[in-house]
Design a protein that fits this description.
- It is a single chain.
- The chain is α/β, with parallel strands linked by helices.
- The protein has helices at 19-30, 42-52, 67-81, 104-130, 154-174, 193-206, 210-219, 229-240, and strands at residues 10-14, 34-39, 57-61, 86-89, 137-141, 180-186, 251-254.
- The model is unreliable at 1-5 (pLDDT under 50).
- The structure holds nicotinamide-adenine-dinucleotide.
């Protein structure tokens, strides 16, 4: 029988100063959680802390690619919250270039943030998650690029496929301690920092307006709309819920049916 877990969560969200991380922080705070938002951008952190407007928020300047920085962030959570039972790995970057033009530096940056960063955060947080005294959770943010290849973003796709493998492996290691580890794999959300970056790139590539691009992506989704940030946060919160206690090692498509219905244009 699952122990009672009414205590509010104590969470660290990487990439928590913007986009999906920040939206998840809002959702966790609404449930009474204590939430550390870890981010490399000091300016974004300042704005995010203001927008969250709660004394249960701990802003942490951190770089997920640095073991020392990650360790310090986890120690800060331990000090401020007395422990940690929730880790959401949302920090991420993307890089666009044809295969021939991807420099080693570009490759390393994306793999470091999007894959190594998730590993370092899972590793550093694991001791606290194991001993939290409540069912702990890790949720990693993959992508539709965790499941299918996309041209012009090879490093991102490689990193995001890796996040699924990492999720499943860490899930097995932490399962004996009641810690669940899952991954959400969203299709493009245009409103976040990365989403806006992708939109600008598509505009340059195609000469289309944002409206045309968004209409085109929506038309390729069986449910015929683009996702909102809330669609993704709902999936994250589903895995964080105490009621998801028997789910681990899952990489959940949050894509309006795109990957599972063969409805991508030209394939059906
Ligand atoms: N927006 C989308 O279309 C989309 C789709 C699928 C998956 N995702 C994934 O969702 C996650 C969140 O992305 P988002 O769309 O909210 O983008 P975002 O740019 O709004 O948020 C990402 C945050 O990560 C932070 N960050 C970057 N490098 C960091 C580092 N080294 N250390 C700490 N923080 C760092 C950024 O400062 C930023 O605040 C990413 O992992 C992304 O790959 C996004």
């Amino acid at each position: 029988m699952t122990p009672s877990t009414a205590t509010p969560r104590r969470a660290l969200i990487t990439g928590g100063a913007n986009g999906l991380g920040l939206a998840t922080a809002h959702a966790l705070l609404a449930q009474g959680a204590q939430v550390a938002i870890g981010d490399i951008s000091a300016d974004q952190l300042k704005m995010a802390t203001q927008s969250l407007g709660s004394d249960r928020v701990l802003p942490l300047e951190m770089n997920v690619t640095s073991p020392a920085s990650v360790r310090l962030a986890v120690e800060a959570c331990q000090k401020a919250f007395g422990g940690l039972d929730t880790l959401v790995n949302s920090a991420g970057v993307i890089h666009f270039a044809p295969l021939d033009e991807v420099s080693e530096q570009d490759w390393d940056r994306v793999i470091d943030v999007d894959l190594k960063g998730v590993f370092l955060c899972c590793q550093a947080a694991a001791p606290l998650l194991r001993q939290s005294g409540r069912r702990s959770r890790i949720v990693n943010i993959g992508s539709d690029a965790s499941k299918i290849g996309w041209p012009l973003i090879v490093s991102y796709v490689a990193a995001k496929f890796g996040v699924v493998g990492l999720t499943k492996s860490v899930a097995g290691e932490l399962a004996p301690y009641g810690v669940t580890v899952n991954c959400v794999c969203p299709v493009g959300v245009s409103t976040t920092g990365m989403g806006q970056h992708v939109l600008r790139w598509k505009m340059d590539l195609t000469g289309q307006t944002p409206e045309q691009i968004l209409a085109n992506t929506a038309s390729q989704i069986p449910l015929k709309r683009n996702p909102s940030e809330a669609d993704i946060v709902n999936a994250i919160m589903f895995f964080l819920a105490d009621s998801s206690d028997f789910l681990t090692g899952i990489a959940l498509d949050v894509d309006g049916g795109m990957l599972s219905t063969a409805a991508i244009s030209g394939t059906g």
